[in-house]
Amino acid sequence: PVPWSLSIMFCGAMIDDKDYQLKEPLSQPTIYVQGGDKDPWGAHGVNCLPKMYTNLTMLEHQDGHTFPSTGPRAGEIYERLAKEMRAACRLDSAA
Predict the structure, then answer these.
(1) Sign of CA dihedral 75, 83, 2, 19
(2) What's the pTM value of the predicted model, to 2 decimals?
C-alpha cells in the first residue's frame, strides 16, 4: 500500500460536530487553500484548522469560496501544490 503523505483541502474541512472532535492534533502534512475575505468560511478554517493539524500550511487567494482562478495568484498556488505533492511522493521535481 502507498502511505498517505499529504492532505490538500480547498475551502476547508473543519470538524464542527462536537461528537467527532479530535482528541489531539494530527501531524499529517496538510495544506489549506482558502479564498480570503470573499470566502465566508475562510476565517473559520484559519481559526480552527491550526488546532487540528500541527503541520499545516495555509495558502490564500481572493476568489472566494472556490478553487483559485485569478492570476497570477492562482498559478502560484497550483505550482506550489504540485511541488508539495511531488515532494510528498518523493518524485523528481522535473517529473
Answers:
(1) negative
(2) 0.88
**How many angstroms separate the Cα of 9 from the Cα of each of 1, 46, 67, 92, 94?**
22, 12, 10, 23, 24
Which residues lie closer than 8 Å to 3 by C-beta, 6 or more apart?
Answer: none
**Contact present, 50 and 56 (Cβ < 8 Å):** yes
At residue 43, the pLDDT reads 87
What sections of the chain are H helices per DSSP?
Answer: 42-52, 73-88
The predicted pLDDT at position 95 comes to 52
Are the C-beta atoms of 67 and 30 separated by less than 8 Å? no
Cell of 44: 473559520
